[in-house]
Amino acid sequence: MEDWREARTLEELYELIKGCRSCPLAETRTNLVLGSGDDNAEIMFVGEAPGYHEDRQGLPFVGPAGQFLDQLLRSIGLKRSQVYIANTLKCRPPENRDPLPEELAACTPYLFKQIEIIRPRIICTLGNHATKTLLRTSAGISQLHGKLIRKGGLAYVPLFHPAAALHKPPLKAVLIEDFQRLGEHLEAERVRWRNEERPVEEVPAEEEGQPEQMGLF
Length: 217
Ligand code: URA
Hints:
This protein is α/β, with parallel strands linked by helices and 217 residues long.
């Protein structure tokens, strides 16, 4: 297989794009950081872009923001291995500057492919960049944080970026509270999915267990 669009697993996708040269960030990166976690995760987190530590290790959220994210996950009974974590950009922008529009244009098709493979129940966008990129909204994170937003067959919960929250104590308190709301959204989505997948009174016994088609976009 040559074309990354045909990848059916995240491993295949990584193998096909690890040498990507679609934008100039290829010149300065150490590693392309696709993401990490459970390929079948119920929740997917999308940050902005790899930083210094992520670029070196080839893994997302391994610095201080990642440690805080781990703590937030634990607060709702989740481990990093149970979720999937990715970024809008797969390569580190020099000096951790903001992603440029042309970099996002080159890189977000990979993110959409990851979402298609994982099919998460909830996508948490971390910070303004991921929120605006995925929800295509002009509304900022200050308006949207903690809410469950349905768009294109997917459910999103925008959250403040853990790195921003580490620098601003008031945001940290909001993010901690929003994680509790995220836990509640997840419970509600689980019930919703259970009911949608198994409408007990309608599905004849012999059809039980057949996978249901799900429109992603
Ligand atoms: N910040 C991000 O947005 N992503 C990372 O992977 C690390 C820090």
